[in-house]
Specification:
Strand content: under 5%
Strand order of the largest sheet: 1-3-2
């Protein structure tokens, strides 16, 4: 395996590891600080949905780290801490997921693009590595190129995900600003959401580096 590839692996591991450590530190820090409103994440989510005129989105209690909005069922799932907790982390997480529900209800364009890409991404994510290995061992340039194209689709999906996540966090912060929570609590919520967004940035960056490496190998 080329030395340059080992260098790429080390860089991506460092980026991913640093992002994960920072996220966990912020989540843990603000999980210990209760929000002054005294409501749970689930209750905050209901309030934000109502404030946006949305009443048909169920909120489910999921397992650990299961925080997401599912456009297929138009529902929100929060992990136990975010669902029942009253911490800054809990309400920030809940409002972020409601931000996605608002995007869906309002037809936010980047979310539509991301949803449209899901079938292609599922296919490409499962096949690109097999085509890459086959192209290398069989010395078939067409397979190698097809693998790069498929991987590029996955990278495009990650890039489209960035504005979707940033916008959901912006919506969350705008709503929290109307609730009367203290400025330091708003700052804490922003720190939580910024840290979580960093994971998507790190994933996109590492994928771009991987794609650039694959392109450089093709030209050799």
């Amino acid at each position: 395996m080329p030395l340059s590839y080992w260098g790429l692996i080390i860089v991506t591991l460092l980026i991913g590891g640093a992002a994960t450590m920072y996220v966990q530190s912020q989540l843990k820090k603000y999980r210990r600080i209760p929000a002054s409103l005294g409501v749970t994440g689930a209750e905050m989510a209901q309030r934000m949905l109502a404030a946006n005129g949305i009443y048909n989105v169920p909120i489910h209690r999921g397992g650990p780290d299961q925080d997401h909005f599912d456009p297929r069922t138009n529902s929100i799932t929060l992990d136990p801490e975010a669902y029942s907790g009253t911490s800054i982390t809990a309400i920030a997480t809940a409002c972020h997921e409601v931000g996605h529900a608002c995007q869906f209800a309002q037809g936010y364009a980047p979310m539509k693009v991301r949803s449209a890409l899901v079938p292609a991404v599922n296919l490409c994510s499962n096949m690109w590595m097999f085509l890459l290995i086959a192209g290398i061992f069989l010395n078939i340039a067409g397979l190698y190129t097809a693998a790069i194209v498929m991987y590029a689709v996955a990278v495009l999906f990650q890039l489209v995900t960035l504005p979707v996540e940033f916008n959901a966090s912006r919506r969350a912060m705008e709503y929290l600003g109307t609730t009367g929570i203290y400025p330091q609590e708003q700052s804490g919520a922003f720190s939580v959401l910024r840290a979580c967004a960093l994971t998507y940035v790190a994933a996109a960056l590492t994928s771009i580096l991987q794609l650039l490496y694959l392109l450089s190998m093709r030209d050799e």
